[in-house]
Amino acid sequence: QVQLVESGGGLVQPGGSLKVSCVTSGIDFSMYDMGWYRQAPGKQRELVARIASGGNTNYVGSVKGRFTISRNNAKNTAYLQMNNLSREDTAVYYCNAHHRYISRYDYWGQGTQVTVSS
Prior knowledge:
Layout: E1 3-7, E2 10-12, E3 18-25, E4 32-39, E5 46-51, E6 57-59, E7 67-72, E8 77-82, E9 91-99, E10 106-108, E11 112-116
Parallel strand pairs: 2-11
Antiparallel strand pairs: 1-3, 3-8, 4-5, 4-9, 5-6, 7-8, 9-10, 9-11
């Protein structure tokens, strides 16, 4: 059974930092590209950052220089370090695992709430 479990969300003040984690099980983690998406109230889900199975990363423009995606293949875990957070970053953050070669192998976590507020 495939599971993606996010954790680390919470309430943080503007300018603060937060690190969210995505622990996976039931997949060969090293064969998956990992992504972090977010969905704010009333908005569509958007890709925030992605890290390929080989380690290449890409980010949406609004988070470049503030967010860092990483992965630890030994722990089957992906991370998103978020710095200098603003109210516009408030959203539910979702982890996604997408197989490098088999597109139908695509899995989502349940999401973790990140709220930026003073």
